[in-house]
Design brief:
Elements lengths: L7 H4 L16 E6 L8 H17 L12 E3 L5 E3 L18 E6 L8 H18 L3 E4 L13 H11 L4 H5 L5
Parallel strand pairs: 1-4, 1-5, 2-4
Antiparallel strand pairs: 2-3
The protein binds zinc ion.
Length: 176
């Protein structure tokens, strides 16, 4: 049975500004985090997801067509739909966005809850059912940005689960 993902409508997201484009391939997953603000309740997680969309669509330095991430998750264990399956996102830069789904943790990711990690696990299993697991990476593995994305707790989980098969994850483990 497919895992439960709260649809973008049920999250209260606005429609995209322009019709979405399909991805070129589903090569893998890139994991992100937002910032130090963690949801205080399941309801608040949805509000933060809407805030993320507002920032991506309305902030002058962004002005994306939609929320940039494909999906979101957080400490209350929900999986939240953003652009959704097979839709070209704006999360990791040209090239990556057309071929990787981007999933974002709501918070800094230093100390994610077990519920958050189980949501990420469910997401990866669902991706596996649909397309194969592919390559699971942290944003920090593919960017030189100073931002540590995702936070260490999320990243440790990725290394523990996928380090064996993705040498790129381990290479960047010690990154500042
Ligand atoms: Zn990121």
């Amino acid at each position: 049975m497919a895992t439960t993902i709260i649809s973008r409508v049920d999250c209260g997201l606005r429609p995209p500004r322009r019709p979405p484009r399909a991805m070129a391939s589903q090569t893998g997953i890139i994991v992100h985090c937002t910032d130090g603000n963690h949801p205080t309740s399941a309801e608040d997680a949805l509000a933060r997801w809407r805030n993320t969309q507002r920032y991506h669509m309305d902030a002058e330095e962004r002005l994306y067509d939609d929320i940039g991430y494909s999906f979101g998750f957080g400490d209350f264990g929900q999986l939240l739909e953003g652009r959704g399956w097979d839709q070209h996102g704006s999360h990791s830069g040209p090239g990556w966005n057309a071929n990787y789904h981007g999933i974002c943790y709501l918070g800094s990711g230093e100390h994610p809850t077990e519920l958050a990690l189980s949501a990420l696990h469910r997401f990866i299993c669902e991706h596996d059912l649909r397309y194969g697991i592919g390559e699971v990476l942290g944003h920090r593995n593919i960017t030189s940005t100073k931002k540590i994305c995702p936070g260490q707790g999320i990243y440790d989980y990725l290394v523990e689960q996928f380090g064996d098969r993705n040498p790129k994850l381990v290479d960047r483990e010690a990154m500042p």
